[in-house]
Design goal:
By secondary structure, the chain is of the alpha/beta class. It has one domain: Carbamate kinase (3-Layer(aba) Sandwich), CATH 3.40.1160. Helices cover 38% and strands 18% of the residues. Strands 4-3-5-2-1-6-10-11-9 form a 9-stranded mixed beta sheet, with helices on both faces. The chain has a two-stranded antiparallel ribbon with strand order 7-8. Helix 2 packs antiparallel against helix 3 and helix 6 runs antiparallel to helix 7. The radius of gyration is 17 Å and the shape is globular. It starts with 8 loop residues before the first strand and ends with a strand.
């Protein structure tokens, strides 16, 4: 019996690190597993938008710290790295026979369509997966903020942030074994406690648009599928 998904339209936020491993910026195993789960969710009839980071290739903050580049230049290199990730992810999804479109907030016509909201909505209505790259197209804004912005623009019911940890914790779970995970937390508490969920701009924008965020471990296969079905996994920020 086919399970009816809880959500009709989602925005999946992925960090660039999810695509690779310690040996290389891209991992065939990691990508194949990720794509398999995305395709399964798509076949449930869910509209999918994806915003991807670029940290597996370039982190703008490191270029500022290590090479002393100006912040604007460093941020643009980060935006370009998201385009590379988007191209790879698009190709992997299309190998599964799923129509996919990549849109960029920075104009690179030979590679992808420029982001236009109406075109993005048209693609989703035609049951295409849409990958949004280039962040917001502006320096000083993270891909988390871009994810909230795109999710709000295209009418997503929820933003699913896939990470390497199980949810939102009161302390860094990697460094502290006694860290406690929140099942539910509100936007204001995240802002006041400065929890490492998303940057403050992204959280504020989510609160303003009443966009719920679910933070979960994307490395555990099946989590994404179960969340879309309605199972409570990870942390709900609302």
């Amino acid at each position: 019996m086919k399970v009816k998904p809880k959500y009709k339209r989602i925005l999946l936020k992925l960090s660039g690190e999810i695509l690779g491993d310690r040996n290389y910026v891209f991992s065939e195993k990691s990508l194949s597993t990720l794509v398999k789960e995305i395709v399964e969710v798509y076949r449930m009839g869910v509209d999918i938008g994806i915003v991807i980071g670029g940290g597996n290739i370039v982190r703008g903050s490191k270029l500022v710290d290590q090479l002393h580049l100006d912040k604007v230049t460093a941020d643009y290199t980060g935006m370009l790295s998201t385009v590379i990730n988007g191209m790879v992810l698009q190709s992997m999804i299309e190998k599964k026979g799923i129509n996919t479109r990549m849109m960029t907030a920075i104009e690179i016509k030979q590679i992808a369509e420029p982001y236009i909201r109406r075109k993005a909505l048209s693609h989703l209505d035609k049951k295409r997966i849409v990958i949004f790259t280039g962040g917001t197209g502006n320096p000083f804004f993270t891909t988390d903020t871009a994810a909230v912005l795109r999710a709000s623009e295209i009418g997503c019911e929820v933003l699913l942030k896939g990470t390497k940890v199980d949810g939102v914790f009161d302390l860094d779970p990697v460094k502290n074994k006694n860290a406690k995970m929140f099942k539910n937390i509100n936007y204001s508490s995240v802002l006041i406690k400065e929890l490492n969920v998303m940057d403050m701009t992204a959280i504020s924008l989510s609160r303003e648009n009443k966009l719920p965020i679910i933070v979960f471990n994307i490395l555990k296969y099946g989590n994404l599928i179960e969340i879309v079905k309605g199972k409570k996994i990870g942390t709900l920020v609302s």
